[in-house]
From TrEMBL:
Phylogenetic classification of the source organism: Bacteria, Bacillati, Bacillota, Bacilli, Lactobacillales
Sequence similarity: Belongs to the LDH/MDH superfamily. LDH family.
The name this protein goes by in its record: L-lactate dehydrogenase
Keywords: Oxidoreductase
Lactate/malate dehydrogenase C-terminal domain boundaries: 148-304
Pfam name, any one: Ldh_1_C
Lactate/malate dehydrogenase N-terminal domain mapped to chain residues: 4-145
Keyword Oxidoreductase belongs to the record: yes
Record carries keyword Oxidoreductase: yes
């Protein structure tokens, strides 16, 4: 069976996702879909021009929803990040635009007979992941948002810089909304084989300052180039590969948690069936309160959107 992946939305992030997949031979067949036919056809041609100098071959299919029927994974990257370029903006400024786009795209996905997994990057990701699940009717475990996989990576970068180690040597999670109400669950973070809370107390390290630095990471990238792409695209492709390879990796992704009644980021085991098993963290009371606050915020925004 061939590894077939689709990318819907070929803006900065979508084209970065597609390039990462093509350059590394992660898929045999890649379906590219975008409402701007000139742009998506140009990308497809550009990828084909790259292939003579690549060690892998990828079959490229353009703007054909029927090709989604036997795809294993669809990556949704529809959105308009330019809307975030205003003071005090958060990811919810994209909601009216993305909501409309998903209401157009999701029925076409359903109509194609697609029965695989959807990986959602589109902002605000927790609300949009809920919407995809509702409109496609796919089981909740098969619709997953990248969520705080990116925020957790930003946290690891900041902690790694502080302790002068490789960020892959830092473990732990940011939880909740992929947005302003997310937080670092410091009780889960370990570095140098020690809980960071212990090291912070011993070395007089301000964890709130580290939390702030990791949250500002995305803003600095956006300020400099008016969009973010590499970090979030890499998180999404990692999630795609975990699904394709059935590697059963624990990742902090946006998944539906019954106890909160909403999609939010919380570690889960991910494999070929999507969310295979949900983790249970031993959080502090303060962290549980922050998670509840985040869940309430997402729920409120989702119901507001449905009533528009």
């Amino acid at each position: 069976m061939s590894r077939k992946v689709a990318v819907i939305g070929m803006g900065h992030v979508g084209s970065t996702v597609a390039h990462y997949i093509v350059a590394n031979g992660f898929a045999d067949d890649l379906v590219l879909i975008d409402s701007n036919a000139d742009k998506v056809n140009a990308d497809a041609l550009d990828f084909k021009d790259a292939m003579p100098n690549l060690p892998y071959h990828t079959n490229i299919i353009v703007n054909d929803y029927s090709a989604l029927k036997d795809a294993e994974v669809i990556v949704s990257v529809v959105g308009n990040i330019k809307l975030q370029d205003q003071p005090q903006a958060d990811r919810f400024v994209e909601l009216p635009y993305t909501w409309k786009a998903v209401n157009d795209v999701a029925p076409k996905i359903k109509e194609s007979g697609f029965s695989g997994k959807i990986v959602v990057i589109s902002n605000p990701v927790d609300v949009i992941t809920s919407l995809y699940q509702k409109l496609t009717g796919l089981p909740k475990n098969q619709v997953i948002g990248t969520g705080t996989l990116l925020d957790s990576a930003r946290m690891k970068r900041v902690v790694a810089d502080k302790f002068d180690v490789d960020p892959r040597s830092v473990s732990g999670y940011n939880l909740g909304e992929h947005g302003n109400s997310q937080f670092t669950a410091w009780s889960t973070v370990r570095v140098l084989d020690q809980p960071i809370t212990k090291l912070a107390a011993e070395q007089n390290i301000d964890l709130q300052e580290l939390d702030k630095d990791s949250k500002l990471g995305g803003w600095y990238v956006f300020k400099g180039k008016k969009y973010t792409s590499y970090g979030v695209a890499t998180a999404a492709v990692r999630l795609v590969n975990v699904i394709l390879s059935d590697s059963r990796t624990e990742l902090p992704v946006s998944n539906f948690r019954e106890e909160y009644g909403v999609y939010l980021s919380y570690p889960a085991i991910v494999g070929r069936q999507g969310i295979i098993k949900q983790s249970q963290l031993n959080l502090t009371d303060e962290e549980l309160a922050k998670l509840q606050n985040s869940a309430n915020f997402i729920k409120q925004k989702y119901s507001e959107s449905l009533n528009k």
